[in-house]
Inverse folding.
């Protein structure tokens, strides 16, 4: 079992990642043991996760979400799938910086 997850950082930004042990990873963030993007943006708050069957699915979902706008991420965090779908069709919302990839599909979530 693998997980894709989103954290809200102290500066208000979002970090998306994936792991095979969600509890351990969240404990690592809480203890300040993770380097990289979140290291200078502590504390972080766990705001969303989804289980996937394989690491490849989790990585694909992570990359997809990283290409989404902030508004779309926040709609998904709220569980507002109608808004996620509307934002997927909207041409006025710009993608976030990150991978910029939007060609990968999160199972059950519209682009």
């Amino acid at each position: 079992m693998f997980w894709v997850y989103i954290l809200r950082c102290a500066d208000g930004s979002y970090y998306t990642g994936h792991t095979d042990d969600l509890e351990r990873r969240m404990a690592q963030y809480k203890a300040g043991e993770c380097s990289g993007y979140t290291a200078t943006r502590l504390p972080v708050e766990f705001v969303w996760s989804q289980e996937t069957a394989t690491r490849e699915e989790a990585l694909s979902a992570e990359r997809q979400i990283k290409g989404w706008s902030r508004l779309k991420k926040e709609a998904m965090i709220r569980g507002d799938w109608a808004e996620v779908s509307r934002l997927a069709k909207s041409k006025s919302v710009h993608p976030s910086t990150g991978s910029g990839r939007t060609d990968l599909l999160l199972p059950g979530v519209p682009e």
Q: What stands out?
A: The two ends are 23 Å apart (CA to CA). The longest helix spans residues 55-66.
